Amino acid sequence: MIPAQFDYVAPTSVEEALAALAEHGDEAKIIAGGQSLLPVLRMRLNAPEWVIDLGRIDSLRGVRDDGDALVVGAMTTHADVRQDPLVTEHAGLVTKAIAHLADAQVRHRGTFGGALVHADPAGDLGAPALVLGAEFVIAGPGGTRTVAADDFFLGLFETAVGEDEILTEVRLPKHTGWGSHYEKFVRVAHQWPIVAVAATVRMDGDTIAEARVGLTNMGSTPVRARAVEEALAGQPATEDAVRAAADRAADGTEPPSDLNGDADYRRHLATVLTRRAVLAAAGA
Amino acid sequence: MTATQDRAGTAEIGRDRRRKEDQRLITGRTRWTDNMVLPGMLHMAMVRSPFAHARITSVDTEAAKGAPNVVTVLTGADVADEQGSVPTAWNITTEQKNPPHPAIAVDRVAFAGEVVAVVVARSAAEARDAAELVDVDYEELPAAIDLKRAAADEVLAHPDLGTNISAVWQYDSVAAGTGDAVDEAIEEARGNGIVIDREYRQQRLIPSFMEPRSFVCDPTGEQITLWSSTQIPHITRFFLAVVLGIPESKLRVIAPDVGGGFGGKLQTVPEEFIAILAARRTGKPVKYTETRSESLMAAHHGRDQWQKLTLAAQQDGTVTGLKVELLVDLGAYAGTVGGGVPILGAFMYNAIYKFPSYRFNCTNVYTNKTLTDAYRGAGRPEATFAIERLMDELAVEVGVDPLEIREKNWIKHEEFPFDTVAGMTYDTGNYEAATAKAREMFGYDELRAEQKKRRDAGDTVLLGIGVSTFTEMCGLAPSRVLGALNYGAGGWEHATIRMLPTGKVEAITGASAHGQGHETAFSQIIADRLGVPFEDVEVLHGDTLIAPKGYDTYGSRSLVVGGEALVRAADKVVEKAKVVAAHMLEASADDLEFSAGRFSVRGTDQGVAIGEVATAVFAAHDLPDGVEPSLDSEATFDPDTFSFPHGTHLCAMEVDTETGAVKMRKYVCVDDVGNVINPLIVEGQVHGGLVQGIAQALWEEAVHDESGTLVSASFVDYLVPTAADTISFDVDQNVTPSTFTSLGTKGVGEAGTIASTPAVVNAVVDAVRHLGINDIRMPCTPERVWKAIHTASSGGSGGADPTEGAAAPHFDESTGMQGTADRTDGGAQ
């Protein structure tokens, strides 16, 4: 599998990368970890004339504490995010989602920002980012702007990051003390989820004070199961109460049909997986 | 056998030797075909049809020819006069219809993936780039995609053939003189016995070997040399010579280290013809290595059958007859052994059971899809699946445990040798002993108790237990039998032993290993036979210049047939050496005994090692008069019969009724593969085989859409399991040596695959049977399982298959079937 010919540039700063983007415009593709782009190039589903590699921009790597949020550099690998104690403590949902993301090789090559910008509806990071209320820091020719998670995912493989922009950081508001769980349903271990549910809950004794639930692969973008969230607030973390709320998980979703299951089956799965995710997150 | 017996304490046979070949295979420090780099070598890229069936109206190669470093572009029209037709080795009847199979399509393509043009360039990248510039105009034709509709000739895959039916083949126990009339048995059972009618689907599978196929052809020098990642260098050499009109003596085929095959490299393929054609045209070495996408789309697929089955039994569960009707999807062309694959199953549907009557009908059908051919087990997994699923259904109908119904009907150990209704003679086996051992290892009774407990408690996770007491036929194959089956070749194997002057030994085999561990196992055999160190034996294979004769590797034949040839060649070496040793020891040959590699004069301490004899023969200074100065010997072994490994496999599956997800809880197998040369290799073969069979049950399925495009065209959609998806298997053996060969081996390459598929599906169905389900179509995806449960629990008809027509029952309404188990409409659709 040989990609079509392309030219390659590896800038060492965000400014240089933006300049390269400005110069080559829609003839260029940005490569982060390459775990999604390389197969596409090799199968010749896309043939950009320029590939701009962000791999040498050191400032895009790492996790830091920024008061009420964690800041994850876009080029931080999944494996590094997963092993970061700050993430485990303040955004445990992300740690849990990455634990089952693809396989070890992908986790060591693929990047946090790259996967989010790729916006595969079956990607494992979209739903956690959504429920944690992540903020996306985007650099462009006119400077830097921040986009809220709810406004970030626009459609299938489409985000708020413009053609001339680069995602540099993802801010994860701290959810210290919240319970979390990522319930992923696959047929084989290395597969994209057929459906997955990201849940994080703040408990008040035995009561669910606040719950956030996100769904993976239940539409063209990751989606919040807001009906479930509302129904859970103030409920006891019991099987029955959570079940009643989770039954609304598929409300308003438009899941795909493919070899792994049709839309109806996915809607059903969403309710079962939501119940399991919430109960696990609540420690019930 | 004396050598083996006398050296019992240090015998190599039976030792768990680590495989000698693994270091180079695992580290990659070896020569795979794609590693080959030759001076001036050119690279090829294929232009393949995106359509399943289309007329080629024009092929414009001008732009491609003008691209950088492109040497030439070949179309079907360019080579129409010299390319001939890719052959099949197996016309199952003399009337079999075969469409012409050009290596490069000339005016019509018959499946998506067929080669229509070949770009030859100085680099692989330039060839690939230029391939995109080849402009092919197609006029799409109606395509025969669905097997059943193709069998009805609704749309013709090859209009000139006039029908899609390639051949119809039958075995009948009355005609064969091996049993009674099956129709009478079924009629009687419909009156006062039990009749089970079922239709099962063997989905299409893709062999998924690790190393994609690769070919290098060098036309330089006197001989044309072809390196090919093939299982069958010898058969390929024969075919290429015959079809292309090259003298066989001018063609050398080399299979270097080959990364797996599973039957997927058991073919002489279009790309091999193309490599030779392109090398001859350009006068340069050429290379082609397929991409994984090309491999999935255009290398052959496996299975793809509908199986209509009728089993007749008495009220107490004693079987009285079995009728099998197969519909087989050959794909677009008759592959090397494609048409014969179902025939290899014809003798195995009766399995280990004493059926008094049997009929097997098979209809091979062309469609506009990738061709199908051998895939691990080839015919026998299909047969085993059918009979082992049916035995479970019979147990339910009689109301007894599935092990009990099997025991009632199987051949008792004291009844061997046993002539079966399918005309085979099973020499040895002990189904009682293997089953008893497996049952104990499994904790059968405890798991049954847990199953009941879960059901009674209304647990959302149910437990099912699946049984497969399989047998198979291995050691392909007696040449006379192959002749009777109209196969185009024989089934013997050849071996040569060369005694080198330094005492080292070269063992040359016509078998062609591609990951099995032949070098280790064969070294162990030779070490014991000649009494030389394991390390001193070099096993050579896979090159028609080095190993000029052979029938290659497939059908669990290499040890059973090839191993025996090695033994016989080694024994000839000993006989020759004995004459020289007697001369050296100034004794009579009659007074010599050979043990642990040493000839000694009985009753004395005088002796000489076989290595010393080899050195003496090399010098040839003092040989007895008239004795040729060579110990080298060869042997060709043609088996009289097949061998029949068997085993009892028990599987426990958990079924999550909320999601339909299935999870393996425990898997136990006790196999009888005859004597074991290397237990480590046997265990490895069983483990790998099990996973491949389990994968058919749970994960793998090649799916085409209505237009004939392969939907599962990458490993994203074609789900091959990894170690993360399987559990640790409990593997053991119960040995009854084969009586057909001096080593007593039976073959192990396919056993796990053949046995495991029905064990898993039986377990899944067993878990949910009380909900009114008696079948779930393979692969048992969570969606299929959940829909079966959901449909059954909502008062529907129970669920076999949600996606397409599923395991529909096969019944003949005119016969009426009251009181029988053929109510598949009541259970599973």
Brief rundown of the structure:
The complex is a heterodimer of chains A (284) and B (829). By secondary structure, chain A is α+β, with helices and mostly antiparallel strands.
Radius of gyration of chain A equals 19 Å
Helix content class of chain B: 25-40%
Mean model confidence by pLDDT of chain B: 94
- Give the termini distance of chain B in whole angstroms: 58 Å
Largest beta-sheet characterization of chain B: 7 strands, mixed
Radius of gyration of chain B: 28 Å
The helix tally of chain B amounts to 23
Low-confidence stretches of chain A: none
Residue stretches of chain B low in confidence (pLDDT < 50, at least 5 long) are 1-9, 796-829
Largest interface: A-B, 24 and 31 residues
| Assembly of the depicted chains | heterodimer
Cα shape of chain B: globular
Amount of beta strand of chain A: 25-35%
Classification by helices and strands of chain B: alpha+beta
Characterize the biggest β-sheet of chain A. 5 strands, antiparallel
Biggest β-sheet: strands ordered side by side in the sheet of chain A: 4-5-10-6-7
Distance between the termini of chain A: 49 Å
Envelope shape of chain A? globular
How much strand content do the residues of chain B show? 15-25%
